[in-house]
Request: fold
Amino acid sequence: MEIGAYSFGDTPLNPDGTPRPTAEAIRNLFEAIVHADKVGLDYFGVGEHHTTSMPASSPGTLIAAAAAATTQITLGSAASIIGTDDPVRVFQQFATADAISGGGRIEITAGRGSSVETFPLFGYDLADYDELYADKLQLLMTINDSTTEHVSWAGTARPALANLAVVPRPVNGPLPIWLATGGNAASSARAGSLGLPISYGIIGGAPHRFAPLAQLYRASAAQAGHPAENAKVSVAALGLVAPTKGEALDRFYPGWNNLNVEMGRLRGWPAPDKRAYLAQAEAPGAYYVGDPDDVAERIVHLHGHLGQMRHFLQTDIGGLPHEHFIESLTLLATEVKPRVERLLKAQ
Amino acid sequence: MNTAATGPRSIGILGAGRVGTAVARQSLRAGYPVKIATTKPVEEIAMLVDIITPGARAVEASEAANADLVVIAVPLHKYRSLNPRLLAGKTVIDVMNYWAPVDGLIDEFENDPRTSSEIIQAFLPEAHLVKSLNHIGYHELEEDGKKAGAVDRRALALAGDDDHAKRMVAAYLDRLGYDPVDAGPLCAGRAFQPGTEIFNGSHTADQLHAVLAAALASSAS
Ligand SMILES: NC(=O)c1ccc[n+]([C@@H]2O[C@H](COP(=O)([O-])OP(=O)(O)OC[C@H]3O[C@@H](n4cnc5c(N)ncnc54)[C@H](OP(=O)(O)O)[C@@H]3O)[C@@H](O)[C@H]2O)c1
Reply:
């Protein structure tokens, strides 16, 4: 199984809790990706997020830079908010990164976004949410699957393309395009019938409750005639690995708390509850916070339900000290991954 | 037959999203026959319904609306795609919320002093609308339910202008695993909209009565 990480950027905090410049978050993220490549992590996903605390707004740019500075890691968006972007531009950015990487390491993940901040930012009407998403996903797939540089497409989300060049073309043929979803059943059915790999963002609750969704996804793919080996599942979740479970819990909690306080202010939630945090950090909870044995065992347990081919964690939230992020990436690659492989082989 | 005393005999759900499918599964657990519809043709959602809500039946909206009790679980901004004629005379639960930080600003709801459910009631003038199930997370709905009489049983508020409809909904909530607490007329649903203490928390019947009384007293003063 592939083991990886993803990040929306994490703006560092001063000792008094005030945020440091957002540019620092981007620089830290870039360094983390380069580090992840060196220690042998399989995958790194970036953005798209548009807040002061999580400023990784431009995954294509960061991934192009990372493509030049890395040699083996697979890089992708997590996710590109396709409904409020221009699929032509998204494709061009990722195809450019693919050219820089030498080919074969760049992926696009298309998502709807869990919040609606991109609508006012890019001047779209929320009432068009579903239609924009479906139409633009279809355009992105048309461009990606095109056998020539010239693409024709007509839809409602933007003016038609009449035999226009969309370049560069990816080095090794179409880029992998994943569909990201947080658990809406219709999205699983849609990914399956389109024959796209699916990425489940599991941010709370018992992850194995996604099993029926993965079943629906695979059944939809089979019904549409797509080969079973194309029906790939990945899992994106929160987590942090440290030498011991206690250290992991202590390191992740302050950032988790900060993030939930911020969300609570925006959404009118009550203060975050440490008991809820601790419960989610134990099996079968959603937070993969632990030592290498604990995290590996829980990833493999979920594999029994979802059959995911990739499991990747978001670690840097709420001003996590950079060195804790870096150590977690190292442990994921060097300690968790071998354990996961051993456990899977033993089954 | 007096369905209010015994509760509904069948449940129809409009919407097969996170909330609609969770309500469907919890209703099935409680022993109700369940029909689900979206705006898509039945063939397109049949497999989804079979796998995600085993035991429920995928139907057209007109058939879902034939059930004793209809649950509207569609995104609020799509409420105009509901057919008011289908819901005329029906007992209907409105689970929808206007929650701008999550769903985005919608001018119509932003600029109207009424609660979202009163706006929906005006759009569905002949439906007997009851606001409920909006203030419990869709995954909690399947986890927090307990048998009647259990200690610390979670309570859910309901608000509506039709007593007969409210009795039916109260019986339904009870069978889903929750103590029903009548908050009063539809406009009293203001006390459990997004951002309120009731929306944010989990309460027993006694606690819910107390919070509701305080909320209604402060809005009257
Ligand atoms: N998040 C929570 O825990 C929670 C709790 C309580 C209440 N709520 C509220 O519940 C509502 C639904 O949320 P959700 O997350 O379940 O939405 P969702 O996942 O987007 O699902 C909406 C469903 O409604 C269907 N639909 C749309 N228009 C319809 C129509 N006219 N007739 C029948 N079906 C229709 C959609 O299918 P098609 O588009 O294919 O027709 C889809 O199946 C929202 O108002 C939300 O605020 C949320």
